[in-house]
Amino acid sequence: MDAIILQILNGLDKGSAYALIALGLTLIFGTLGVVNFAHGALFMIGAFCSVTLSKLLNLSFETVDPTQKDFLGNPLKVKTPYVESWFGPEVGATIIDWSVPLAILFAIPIMLVIGYVMERGLIKHFYKRPHADQILVTFGLAIVLQEIVKFYFGANPIQTPAPDALSGVANLGGALGLQIAYPIWRLVYIGFSLLLIFGAFAFLQFTTFGMVVRAGMADRETVQLLGIDIDRRFTIMFGLAAAIAGLAGVMYGPINAPNYHMGMDFLVLSFVVVVVGGMGSLPGAVLAGFLLGILEAFASTTWATTTIPGINQIIIYLVAIIVLLTRPRGLMGKKGVMED
């Protein structure tokens, strides 16, 4: 039982990232009809937003500390972060320690602007082009973005540690007599992902803006005939989808150190998630993300990899084949989507 619960948690952890990226992909496809292969790059940029903020908060200046001496008896030069000089040593150290959660506020406007520029500068010119053209141009954009990040940040992963208060391990099974120790930050990531997913669905379901967007997804021409500028709202949704991917990347940094190719690592799997869930189906994308994450976690156990070597590398694709053979539209796909 301990092992089963642990693997479910591992699956929810990885599935949270799949679900968030797939949710953004589906929002873009459902509103604009664009297959965005640059969406993984947005996840990567979000992770590097936390790296950037951490570097900014650690900017420091040198001062001479007469209380500390080197081996020759000379006063030592020490580096003091600017935030510690501005807010005091304790508050400054706390701000630096919580740089990853604070990066959420830093990343939101950046990701919204990047999404807006991408949509207005490039994506809008491919609305009526074949999906193959959309895939090629957005895949090329993804390569450009990751090479820019590689140029400025280097090719090696950059550690972005979680706050000290959230970097330990929680004992989840003590009350039940089970031995289940799990990293606190991974639990935080699962909770954050669920909150973000709930927020996105609530925004679309209960706000006037979201209702208009859903109406536009169902019948764009009728909404335009009512005098509503649906294109502007779809552009805003592109920015929101970019922000969701970026926030997923921000919070994933302490789990997997950001590197320039992490977007590509998640992109292909996230597209498989979208296809399994059903193209254009938001609930399907989320359901498939968590489902495939859990299956991948169980396929990564020692028993599974010993019984069928390499099963952890192909389980998602095997499930995708089975689902598409038995239900070509995916788990919750709608008739007519991608069938032209």
UniProtKB/TrEMBL annotation:
Q: Where located?
A: Cell membrane
For this entry, the protein name equals Branched-chain amino acid ABC transporter, permease protein
Q: What GO molecular function annotation could you give as one example from this UniProt entry?
A: transmembrane transporter activity
Transmembrane domains' residue ranges: 16-35, 42-61, 95-114, 192-213, 233-254, 266-295, 307-325
CDD domains listed in its UniProt record: TM_PBP1_LivH_like
User: What family does the entry list?
Assistant: Belongs to the binding-protein-dependent transport system permease family. LivHM subfamily.
Q: Lineage of this protein's species?
A: Bacteria, Pseudomonadati, Pseudomonadota, Alphaproteobacteria, Rhodobacterales
User: Keyword set for this entry?
Assistant: Amino-acid transport, Cell membrane, Membrane, Transmembrane, Transmembrane helix, Transport
The way it spans or sits in the membrane comes to: Multi-pass membrane protein
Chief site of localization: membrane
Q: Name one GO cellular component term.
A: plasma membrane
PANTHER family to which the protein is assigned, alphabetical = ABC TRANSPORTER ATP-BINDING PROTEIN (PTHR11795:SF442), BRANCHED-CHAIN AMINO ACID TRANSPORT SYSTEM PERMEASE PROTEIN LIVH (PTHR11795)
A single GO BP = amino acid transport
